[in-house]
Amino acid sequence: MKKVEAIIKPFKLDDVREHLEGVGVTGMTVVEVRGFGRSGGKASIYPGAEYIVDFVPKVKVEVVVPDALVHQVIDAIIEAAHTGHPGDGKIFVLPVDEAIRISTGERGPDAL
Questions:
Q1: Is 96 helix (H, G, I), strand (E, B) or coil?
Q2: What local confidence, expressed as pLDDT, does residue 8 receive?
Q3: Backbone phi and psi for residue 106, each to the nearest 5 degrees, phi listed first
Q4: What is the DSSP letter of 109?
Q5: Exposed/middle/buried for 8, CB within 10 Å: 0-12, 13-18, 19+?
Q6: For residue 33, how far is the Cα from the chain centroid?
Q7: Is 61 exposed, middle or buried (CB count within 10 Å of its CB: 0-12, 13-18, 19+)?
Q8: C-alpha span between 107 and 31 (Å, rounded)
Q9: What is the predicted pLDDT for the residue at 87?
Q10: Global pTM?
């Protein structure tokens, strides 16, 4: 099993959700986050002064999927989240040693 974490622009969340459902993802966790990447934030104008917004609002989408589904999930996120502009986001893939469904006690891929 793998955990796929995607940091995306907030307005792309619905598109990403739809694409993930289309490849068979049945659940996800979504968290509002703030951060910056290579651009270091962006300059904004406030009446009379320019300032730097260091932390840009983003959304983190987390899904845990069987190994066989990882590449489809990555492709779905890329297709849905891509705008072609800086700040489209990042995808991280991490190993998951164990998953347990608390309500039933199911373990491993059955718990997904």
A1: coil
A2: 97
A3: -60, 145
A4: G
A5: buried
A6: 10
A7: buried
A8: 25
A9: 86
A10: 0.85
Per-residue tokens: 49? 């002064």
Q: What would the pLDDT profile of 20-77 be if each residue is shown by its tens digit?
A: 999 999 999 999 999 887 766 665 556 666 666 678 899 999 999 999 999 999 999 9
Specify the number of domains making up the chain: 1
β-pairing verdict for 89-95 and 2-8: antiparallel
* Residue range of the domain that includes 54: 2-111
What tokens were used for 57?
């609002």
What's the CATH number where 13 sits? 3.30.70.120
Q: Please enumerate in sequence order all residues whose Cβ is within 8 A of that of 8, keeping only pairs 6 or more positions apart, or say none.
A: 16, 58, 59, 60, 61, 77, 81, 88, 89
State both tokens at 33: 């986050």
- Our separate counts of H helices and E strands in the chain read 2, 6
